[in-house]
C-alpha cells in the first residue's frame, strides 16, 4: 500500500527515543518510538551478533577512509544505522550488496533496533541516538517501509520541500540539537536544497562519559609527540600514575583500556604501535577479529605511568566512493532498486559522515551525524531559461494584443 507522506512531528531527543524502547509507535502525528513488538523478542545475543557485524563494517570503513598522515574519526553505529534505514527500502541486487557490506541478515533487520536500545541502557554514560526522515512533498512512499523505519529505528518523519532553503535550515537545526551543538550542519554537504531529492535521512549519535579515574589537570604538561616522519611536536599530555588498568601486549602494538563511570561498562581502548611509523601496519592488522582478540586479551596490570594526549578533533567525508569500494556500488547509480521504498524508483545520491571528539582530563565527549539523500533522475532534456545576457521584454494585453511596455535590457544594474 502506498501513500504520500503526511506531516508528522520531528525533533525527538535521542535519550527519549531510546528510553522509549518498548512503547507502541503510535499513530501518525505522534513522536516515533522503537516498537516493542519488533524488538522485545530479540535476545541480548541478537544485539551482540549485529554489533559484531557492524564492528566488521566499521573497521572495513576505517581502512577505506583513513589517511595515514591525517586524523580520522568515524562512528560505525551512526553510518551503519543510516545505511540500514536506506537498506530497508532496497530490493534485488541493490539490497544484496548492502546486506553483504553491512553484514546483516536481511534488508529489514530488526536486530539493529535491539542494538540501539541496549547501547543506551546505561546510567554510567550519556549515549543518545536519533534518526529522522524528511520526505519530499507529494512523492509517494510505500507505507510498509515508512512503518518499519519508524518502528525499528524510532525515526521521526516530516514532509517538506527538499528544494527549499528553509528545509535545509531545519535539517541543520536538527543536527545541532541532536549533537548538543558539537556539529553545526550537514545540509550543504548533502547538496541541499535539491529539487531532485525525494528523501533525506539522518542519524545522530552523542556520547558523554567521565573517566572512572580522572586525570589531574595539574599533571598535564607539554611533551614531545613523534610524528610518522620522525619529527617531534609538543602536545599536552595528561598523566596517571600507579593505576590498575586493563592492558595487553600484542604483536606489533600494545593496547590499554580506560574505563568510564562507576560500572566501567564503556571504555576507550588505545592501540599503540611499537614504533612511530607503525600506524599503517596497525591499520592493516586491526580488523573486527583482531580487535576482538585484543580486547579479550586485556588483563589487569599495574601501570606505573600513563601519558595520553589531550585532543579535540573534527572530521568529515563523503562516503560514496569508500562504500562503493567495499562492495556497495549499485545503490549509488540510477540502476539501483529502491522500489520497496517508493514507486518513484529513486537512487542514493550521497552519504556524508561528520564527527567530533574531545578527550580531556575529565573524560570524553563525542558526536557523529550521518546523512543520506535519495534522488529522482533529472529529466534527460531539462528545459532551462537562464536570463544571463542582454534581453528584450514586453508587457502586453492578451485581450487586445497591445504592448503596453517594451524594453531592451543590456545591463540590469540600471
For the terminal residues, how far apart are their CA atoms? 56 Å
What's the shape?
globular
Radius of gyration: 25 Å
Summed over residues and divided by their number, the pLDDT gives a mean of 85
Total E-strand runs: 15
Alpha-beta classification? alpha+beta
Query: How much of the sequence is in beta strands?
Result: 25-35%
Reading the helices and strands in chain order gives: EHHHHHHEEHEHEEEEEHHEEHEEEE
Stretches where pLDDT is under 50 for at least 5 consecutive residues are: 1-32
Tally the helices: what do you get?
11
Helix content: 25-40%
Lateral arrangement of strands in the main beta sheet: 4-2-5-13-12-11
Reported for the largest beta sheet, the result is:
6 strands, mixed
Amino acid at each position: 500500500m502506498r501513500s504520500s507522506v503526511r506531516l508528522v512531528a520531528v525533533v525527538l531527543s535521542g535519550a527519549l527515543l531510546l528510553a522509549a524502547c518498548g512503547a507502541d509507535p503510535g499513530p501518525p502525528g505522534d513522536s516515533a518510538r522503537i516498537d516493542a513488538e519488533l524488538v522485545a523478542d530479540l535476545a541480548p545475543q541478537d544485539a551482540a551478533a549485529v554489533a559484531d557485524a557492524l564492528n566488521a563494517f566499521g573497521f572495513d570503513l576505517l581502512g577505506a577512509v583513513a589517511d595515514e598522515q591525517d586524523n580520522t574519526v568515524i562512528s560505525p553505529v551512526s553510518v551503519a544505522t543510516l545505511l540500514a534505514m536506506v537498506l530497508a527500502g532496497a530490493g534485488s541486487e541493490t539490497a544484496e550488496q548492502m546486506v553483504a557490506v553491512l553484514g546483516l541478515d536481511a534488508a529489514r533487520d530488526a536486530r539493529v533496533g535491539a542494538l540501539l536500545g541496549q547501547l543506551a541502557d546505561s546510567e554510567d554514560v550519556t549515549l543518545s541516538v536519533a534518526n529522522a526522515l524528511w520526505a519530499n512533498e507529494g512523492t509517494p512512499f510505500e507505507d510498509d517501509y515508512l512503518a518499519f523505519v519508524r518502528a525499528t529505528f524510532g525515526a521521526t518523519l516530516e514532509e517538506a520541500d527538499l528544494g527549499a532553503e528553509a528545509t535545509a535550515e531545519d535539517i541543520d537545526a536538527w543536527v545541532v540539537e541532536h549533537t548538543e551543538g558539537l556539529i553545526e550542519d550537514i545540509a550543504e554537504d548533502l547538496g541541499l536544497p535539491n529539487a531532485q531529492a525525494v528523501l533525506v535521512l539522518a542519524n545522530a549519535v552523542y556520547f558523554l562519559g567521565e573517566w572512572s579515574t580522572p586525570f589531574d589537570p595539574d599533571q598535564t604538561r607539554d611533551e614531545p609527540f613523534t610524528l610518522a616522519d620522525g619529527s617531534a611536536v609538543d602536545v599536552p599530555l595528561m598523566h596517571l600514575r600507579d593505576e590498575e588498568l586493563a592492558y595487553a601486549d600484542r604483536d606489533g602494538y600494545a593496547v590499554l583500556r580506560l574505563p568510564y563511570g562507576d560500572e566501567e561498562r564503556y571504555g576507550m581502548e588505545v592501540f599503540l604501535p611499537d614504533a612511530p611509523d607503525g600506524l599503517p601496519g596497525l591499520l592493516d592488522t586491526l580488523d573486527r577479529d583482531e580487535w576482538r582478540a585484543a580486547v579479550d586479551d586485556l588483563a589487569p596490570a599495574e601501570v606505573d605511568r600513563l601519558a595520553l594526549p589531550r585532543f579535540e578533533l573534527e572530521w568529515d567525508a563523503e562516503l560514496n566512493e569508500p562504500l562503493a569500494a567495499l562492495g556497495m556500488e549499485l545503490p549509488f547509480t540510477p540502476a539501483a532498486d529502491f522500489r520497496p521504498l517508493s514507486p518513484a524508483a529513486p537512487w542514493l545520491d550521497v552519504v556524508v559522515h561528520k564527527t567530533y571528539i574531545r578527550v580531556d582530563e575529565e573524560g570524553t565527549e563525542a558526536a557523529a551525524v550521518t546523512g543520506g539523500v535519495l534522488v529522482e533522475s533529472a529529466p534527460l532534456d531539462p528545459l532551462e531559461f537562464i536570463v544571463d545576457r542582454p534581453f528584450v521584454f514586453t508587457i502586453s494585453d492578451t485581450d487586445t494584443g497591445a504592448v503596453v511596455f517594451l524594453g531592451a535590457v543590456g545591463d540590469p544594474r540600471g
